[in-house]
Amino acid sequence: MVLQSSLKNCLQLSCILRTPKAGFRSTTTGDLIIQSISNDVYQNLAVEDWIHDHMNLENRRVLFLWRNSPAVVIGRHQNPWQECNLRLLRQKNIKLARRRSGGGTVYHDLGNINLTFFTNRKKYERMENLKLVVKALKALCPQLDVRVTDRYDILLDGQYKISGTAAKLGRTTAYHHCTLLCNADKSVLSSVLKSPYRGLKSNATPSVPASVKNLFEEDSGLTCEMLLDAIAEEYAAQHQIDHCITLINPADETVLPGINNKTKELQTWEWVYGKTPKFSISTCFNLVYEDSVLDVKVDMEVKHGRIEVCNIDLPEQWLPPALCSELVKSLTGTKLCPNEITTLTTTLLRVCPQDDELHSRWNLLCENMVMLM
Amino acid sequence: VCIHLVRSCSSVRSVKSKYVCVPDKPALSFSHQQRFFRTSAVSCGQIVQFKLSDIGEGITEVTVKEWYIKEGDSVSQFDSICEVQSDKASVTITSRYDGVIRKLHYSLDEIAYVGKPLVDIEIDASKGVTSQEDVVETPPMSHEEHTHQEIKGHKTLATPAVRRLAMENNIKLSEVIGTGKDNRILKEDILNYLAKQTGAILPPSPKAEIISPVPKAESVPAGPVDKARKAPVPLARPVVVAGKDKTEPVTGFQKAMVKTMSAALKIPHFGYCDEVDLTQLVQLREEMKPLAQARGVKLSFMPFFIKAASLGLLQYPILNASLDESCQNVTYKASHNIGVAMDTEQGLIVPNVKNVQACSVFEIASELNRLQTLGSAGQLGTNDLTGGTFTLSNIGTIGGTYAKAVILPPEVAIGALGKIQVLPRFNEKGEVFAAQLMSVSWSADHRVIDGATMARFSNLWKSYLENPASMLLDLK
């Protein structure tokens, strides 16, 4: 629905709407403004990858505009367990993606717009790009108090973050992308970006939390389409090109050969979770069993998203030691994934002594272990 | 005067040993010696310190976040070496040389400095570095140096050795099709181009001929139709498989399956198979489907199979039992928790419907829907996955007729259901009619179940399904 009106706006506001020809690189030679017709975070991140890997940006620059349906996007070197509430994400069916650029974690939904500035390596210049965005915002809403900080954030009223930045530099090309909050769901944002996991120790890049505000709160007439258009117009003016937005379909192999492989790779467990730098979990929880409360201490080392080392400290004889060591042995090498652990531990029960009491203790322990993930 | 140049393998510049006896002319001998030094240095692997190039924006230090290579790995020019991060920017550092990594100057999470050595690379001697300047320490790699790689405005990637080969043969690189990574031109491409020009027969290339429609950056390089490759080669080339064996450790859920199946092997299985005429059930389901849909439930055949099984278990409770490890006791389970085998991304998981003996067909259908939704989302809980007493596996949804199912301990029986096929059969009058047939294959633990019991259970189950109305008599 939103996409349709966006298309309509493009038709009304911009002069010409070109449909992309095959062999994307070979169209024009000037700078380009493109917009994705998809709201899938993996497809859109794949487009960034594709442009970065395959487009000749020696003499042209590209602005890529995109929006995503609800998703949490972590930076290249971050730890998802540290950054967000994975349980809540699963419950609410919010996707988790890891992008290839650095920086911190952000929440995307259709009330947030994403801008990617592609240039060759030499012309990589983030300040310029952000100043362009601020100029566009001020042209749209002159009374807006927006400015760029030296951390490459854009602040509203001097205190609320409305945009965060990240960048990726390759051998010959570079891109700088940033978000812009127009009308995102702030309550979902704050709940998903709060990690419930305790006892994590990691060298992963931490996010810097900030108070956020939607531009919509300053000016209720603002919509994402208006923001996108204002920025495209400013870009076109500064780069001396027509204010035309080329729409691209991130699933179209004829225009973007090889893109579906890139999209698939971004969705694999190995990329999203497996690229987490080595970290350790050292925590404890209480088991409430019948009339007693037991203390359980868990120490784990996680590498490539898999449990490398696992140690569970249980009160003596609560579970037969053979069973405990069986659990620890099975957990070693397993993905830190609730589904994987649940199916593993329930299947193991089949070869354990068939004792109801034993089974309920085992299940209780395993369910609590799963809560750590 | 004899001048000895001693070989030292581990030093930075390794030189060939050479015993030179030079007549007593100091000036001449000295320059002689220098010349030897230079040529011999080039012909061996020379170690070069690859420095961290300028990141831009005045950045002087970065953090090393990931190494893509380790000491001893071979790299080609433009291969990724590591990922560094600076102030929200993630930078991929690529190799400038072909060679072997000899030393990593930083470990993970260490701070690396622009202009200082990042890795030491031993330049591949056989590739023949063109000049001394390329090999010796250079100032931090600037972007200008990449421009000499580009010809006529479009990127043509090729190593200096390949360029020299092209130059020596008067070949324009822009006319050669590159089959290496990122379409770079390899030595073989130059040779193939030459062969095309002269019609020479080339020795078979070691790469398999894979022509794919999509240019891939990472996998086996695909050559577009290249006449040189299809040049007259009279001998049949051995088919070289381009893939490699891949070994992975058995972890997680797979490990648990290994244990379970090994335990199942200890159970003496016997099989019993039969054919069930579902013609009436197919009709009944068609009638019931919209009713269930109206209540928000998708109705398949499984709820009927499950309920019929439970009715059968009421008559033959030994099939819903469990034999303890020492084979001393048999426990007859009161609840019929019937497991349904589900195929998911991870593999075979078996959630179960609890207390089928007390559930209606509709309730079973509803519960199945819930389990299927959770199963495909990877969110089944421990309660859903434990406590099963009897299992049905509807392998027929994928295909097949008869199967030999493996009993899932601690259970004693399992049923595998094949696909429903329309086959000609004879009725009582001797007429041929189209019957909707499904085959069923039961496996049972022969230590506590005998063939007769299995057969009678199967007959009862079959009779309920062939004449669904008869289920009404025994429904509780």
From TrEMBL, chain A:
Organism, as annotated: Urocolius indicus
Main location: mitochondrion
Metabolic or biological pathway: Protein modification; protein lipoylation via exogenous pathway; protein N(6)-(lipoyl)lysine from lipoate: step 2/2
Places the protein is found: Mitochondrion
Enzyme class: transferase
GO cellular component: mitochondrion
Record's keyword terms, sorted: Acyltransferase, Mitochondrion, Transferase, Transit peptide
Catalysis performed (reactions): N(6)-[(R)-lipoyl]-L-lysyl-[glycine-cleavage complex H protein] + L-lysyl-[lipoyl-carrier protein] = L-lysyl-[glycine-cleavage complex H protein] + N(6)-[(R)-lipoyl]-L-lysyl-[lipoyl-carrier protein]; (R)-lipoyl-5'-AMP + L-lysyl-[lipoyl-carrier protein] = N(6)-[(R)-lipoyl]-L-lysyl-[lipoyl-carrier protein] + AMP + 2 H(+)
Listed GO MF terms: lipoyltransferase activity
Family annotation (PANTHER family): LIPOATE-PROTEIN LIGASE, LIPOYLTRANSFERASE 1, MITOCHONDRIAL
EC number: 2.3.1.200
SUPFAM superfamilies: Class II aaRS and biotin synthetases
Short name of any one Pfam family annotated for the protein: LplA-B_cat
Family to which the UniProt record says this protein belongs: Belongs to the LplA family.
Domain of life of the source: Eukaryota
Domain BPL/LPL catalytic: 57-243
Protein function: Lipoyl amidotransferase that catalyzes the transfer of lipoyl moieties from lipoyl-protein H of the glycine cleavage system (lipoyl-GCSH) to E2 subunits of the pyruvate dehydrogenase complex (PDCE2). Unable to catalyze the transfer of octanoyl from octanoyl-GCSH to PDCE2. In vitro, it is also able to catalyze the transfer of the lipoyl group from lipoyl-AMP to the specific lysine residue of lipoyl domains of lipoate-dependent enzymes but this reaction may not be physiologically relevant.
Classification via InterPro entries: aa-tRNA-synth_II/BPL/LPL, BPL_LPL_catalytic, LipoylTrfase_LipoateP_Ligase
Keyword Membrane set for record: no
Gene encoding the protein: Lipt1
Record protein name field: Lipoyl amidotransferase LIPT1, mitochondrial
GO term, biological process aspect, one: protein lipoylation
Acyltransferase is among the record's keywords: yes
UniProtKB/TrEMBL annotation, chain B:
Cofactor(s) recorded in Swiss-Prot or TrEMBL: (R)-lipoate
Ranges that cross the membrane: none
Catalytic activity annotation: N(6)-[(R)-dihydrolipoyl]-L-lysyl-[protein] + 2-methylpropanoyl-CoA = N(6)-[(R)-S(8)-2-methylpropanoyldihydrolipoyl]-L-lysyl-[protein] + CoA
UniProt entry tagged with the keyword Thylakoid: no
Peripheral subunit-binding (PSBD) domain: residues covered: 157-194
Domain Lipoyl-binding: 47-122
Matching PROSITE patterns: BIOTINYL_LIPOYL, LIPOYL, PSBD
Gene3D superfamilies on file: 2.40.50.100, Chloramphenicol acetyltransferase-like domain, E3-binding domain
Protein name in UniProt: Dihydrolipoamide acetyltransferase component of pyruvate dehydrogenase complex
Species annotation: Urocolius indicus (Red-faced mousebird)
Organism placement in taxonomy: Eukaryota, Metazoa, Chordata, Craniata, Vertebrata
Gene (UniProt): Dbt
